[in-house]
Amino acid sequence: MIKRRRIPLVCAVALGVAASVAIVAPASARPATSFRHGTAALPTEIVLPPGFQPEGIAIGTWPFAYFGSRADGDLYRANLITGQGSVFSQGPGTGSLGMKVDPRGRLFVAGGGAGDARVVSAVSGAVLASYQFATAPTFVNDVVLTGDAAWFTDSQRAVLYRVPLGHHGELPAQAAVVSVPLTGDFVLQAGFNANGIARTPDGRALLIVQSNTGLLFRVNQATGVATTVDLGGALLTSGDGILLSGHTLFVVRNQANLVAVVRLNAAGTAGSVVAPLTDPRLDVPTSAATFGDRLYLTNARFSTPPTPTTPYSAIAITRP
Q: CATH fold of 26-318, please?
């Protein structure tokens, strides 16, 4: 007897929405190149709207990628099979930076200089909740989901913001948001500080990269005490988005145009930096997400003056 897998309602709806998006996408959004993955040809490049200024990327269980614009906060959804997509949620006029998608079909989006975050339906694009964390100086940069909370970094302050989630993922009121000061080895410096955030391999603590110093920290979720991860003296300068896969931490080093590969122990207290991932198509990448055996990276192109017609894209590379 063949057992058929039941598709959750939210995923089924998302599949239908993404399929319709792919049909109406303009020719300019179609991928120019592709590579083989099993029996299907998948694009190695996702062309984003001109002038979009991408920053964050999120990919869940299904083959759809979500991108945020640092220019106006628009959210763009792309079908990874076809490479086609469209803006499905209008931004608030301020940036959408790091983001993550949860199994309930919700996008948690960091709000950059606005000092806020919002939760958006990955299906309809509707804003489900908004949270104000801080006022200037602030730069809410990235987010990680731990099951019972969403944690956000602030690159201008020595603090993490914790948005607690209910037993069934319920979104809290503003009053439930907690600011957790970063202490211990973490010292606020001039420039961009805490940036990408992830969990340790054992899930018991958080990892953050400090862009200006290149240091990686393990953070106690209960106390905010940060301990420098022993990388044998290696630095991750210009570290931006980070992504954990098993015991491997991918650190996007934007100005270096590469992805550092760090092999961590289970507790995330020590690791070794191995050969980096590079590609000639990288143009100041900022964030990474994974699907299958590939790593998707947004090209923020910080060194290119942005205009309404500046081209932007995300690329796919094979990951170890």
A: Neuraminidase (2.120.10)
